[in-house]
Amino acid sequence: MLFKRFILVVLVALAISAALAGCRNLKESKPIIPITEYERLLVGRIDANYVGNDTCLSACHFHDNYRRDFEASTMGAQLSAESGMPLVDCETCHGPGSQAIVGLTKARIERDREHGIQTKCNYDTFIDIKNLPPGAKSLMCLKCHTANATFNLHDWNSGDHAISDVSCDDCHDVHKGADLITSPRETKDMCFKCHPESRAQFSLRSHHPVNELKIFCTDCHSPHGGINDRMLRDYLAKETCIKCHADKSGPFVYEHADLNEDCMLCHVPHGSPFNSMLITQEFFLCMQCHSGHRTSSRGSALESKAAFYTRCTDCHTTVHGTDLPSPGGGTFLR
Question: How far is the C-alpha of 254 from the C-alpha of 293, rounded, in Å?
Answer without folding.
Answer: 21
